[in-house]
Hints:
Blueprint: H1 5-17, H2 48-51, H3 57-60, E1 72-92, E2 95-104, E3 107-119, E4 124-131, E5 135-139, E6 156-171, E7 176-191, E8 193-195, E9 198-218, E10 223-230, E11 233-244, E12 250-261, E13 264-272, E14 277-286, E15 293-299, E16 308-313, E17 319-329, E18 334-343, E19 361-373, E20 376-393, E21 412-431
Antiparallel strand pairs: 1-2, 1-3, 1-21, 3-4, 4-6, 5-6, 6-7, 7-9, 8-9, 9-10, 9-11, 10-13, 11-12, 13-14, 14-17, 15-16, 17-18, 18-19, 19-20, 20-21
Amino acid sequence: MQFSNNLKKYIISICTTSIFIFSAQSFAGAFQLWEESAASLGDYHAGAAAEANNAGTIFYNPAGMSRMKHQQISAGVVFINLGATYNGTVTIGGYQTATTVGIPGNTYNIVPNFHYVLPINDRWAVGLEETTPFGASTNYNDFNSVVDNVEDLATETKLETINLNPSVSYAINHYVSVGAGFDAMYGEAIYNSEAIFAPLDNTLTGWGYGYNAGVLFQFTPETRAGLSYRSAITIPAVGQSDYNGGVGNTNSSTVSANFPLPATTMMSVYHDINHRLAIMASAFYTQWSCFQSLIINNMAQGPGSPNATVGLNENYHNTWNFAIGTRYRFNQHFALEAGAGHDETPTSLPYRDIRLPDASHYVVSFGLNVRPTPTVECSIGWTHLFLGNTPVDNSGSFNAGQSTINPSFFPIGQGTVNSSVNIFGIQLTFNV
């Protein structure tokens, strides 16, 4: 089947918009990241909203700052290694253009974090942190665009967010503390593909704002529970869409879209069995149902073709994340951690494409805490996600009522993505 240049450009424009900002990865449900402090990596953030033993509590439960008796600085980095290999078909206009075997979309991601807590007195504390609540990337290398056609579905996809979060906490009494914070989130999305063997590059940026709040209950000296909430945030993003087919065959436009990020409720318990052994658990509820559709306005097309509006059905549903963990402290200098959990995906067929080959999965974690002095602690953690083969099928993604492009030009990928994720992190914490 032969396609004109304009039709081909339409096709590639649509596929590059397909869930670009919610890009392919399986670090948590969809593109959500729980690894906001490497200190919580070893137990898979079990008990994170209740433990409150370092400045990283700002993200999980700002009320936990009331437990900080000294000024504290905590900084770290998490390395996320994603392996994704697509095996399946690419279909355009009802015609199967290629069968792909073993097309890799591997990426390496670096997620930094910084947390600072300043106790004002026995009741009040303030804090500031920088985290990455959402982020992801994949890159399906173009080995042979004539044979495999995967670049019709996606090449490079990347989402980066930076969240700045000033917070305050207040200890009502010895048993109950409360906290709240303000979220200012910056997002940048890169989503690229290939059209007529030429780059089609798209970048959007924007700011969104929200809030968070929490409460911490200290039932006994050994047992506490925490409940926190982070509000939904919508990022109105604007950027540039560029088609570059060579001299005399280029076009650019200003592209825009609104991207909803979900609210999350965190519930945790923590218990010291004795001075060496502790157990903890968490349940996180994420309201992904806010993401039912995505509309991309003014996508660039080839010269002489009108810019396009593309509507996509996402149909995300709300999810749970469960985690249990334990810590054994050998002495005042060394402790081992372990954790396990289950993370649900908000995606479903036929709305899942190779940019987001996410599936519900089980998780295991291990970590080591080293405290060489009373004021310095180093935490090292590793997490592995059991993913395997995830079915992908985006045949229901195109929304003709919200698009200016013929639905018969929408590229469909159907098959499986074999994914593996390993996460490594290191965190340094200082009492000042």
